[in-house]
Specification:
Blueprint (H helix, E strand, L loop, with lengths): L1 H14 L8 H28 L2 H17 L1 H12 L4 H40 L1
Helix pairs in contact: 1-2, 1-3, 2-3, 3-5, 4-5
Length: 128
């Protein structure tokens, strides 16, 4: 959860560059931070794969994959912006795609959280 939250924040920061004039240095810094955060999310999902019940592991993997997909729209738009100014249509397409990947992340999070909570509650019952 923490890793995915950090990744979403880093992706949001990257997306904030899209309405501005392209700045390679700022893009590189924010892209690097977002990629590192997405990788941390994938590592966290891998840990759940090793330690968690199958349904939680599958939900964690789907959540991490959704976060990974969510980084693509701002990177693609900023790469286009580095080459030429963008049309209103390109900006609109970006907003639509980014909204779609954001909704996917949220739906995967909503699936993961109750499963993880149930698994953690079950592990606490074993300790008691």
């Amino acid at each position: 959860m923490d890793a995915a939250h950090e990744a979403q924040g880093a992706i949001w920061q990257l997306g904030q560059l899209t309405p501005e004039a392209f700045d390679q240095h700022r893009y590189d810094i924010r892209r690097g931070a977002a990629i590192d955060a997405v990788r941390a999310t994938r590592r966290a999902a891998d840990a759940v794969q090793l330690e968690g019940p199958t349904d939680v592991a599958e939900a964690a993997e789907a959540y991490a994959k959704a976060v990974d997909r969510h980084i693509a729209p701002p990177i693609e738009l900023l790469m286009q912006l580095s080459r030429e100014p963008l049309s209103d249509e390109q900006h609109a397409r970006y907003r639509s795609t980014a909204a779609g990947t954001s909704a996917l992340v949220e739906s995967r999070r909503q699936r993961f959280v109750p499963l993880a909570r149930r698994a953690l509650d079950g592990s606490m019952d074993v300790v008691d």
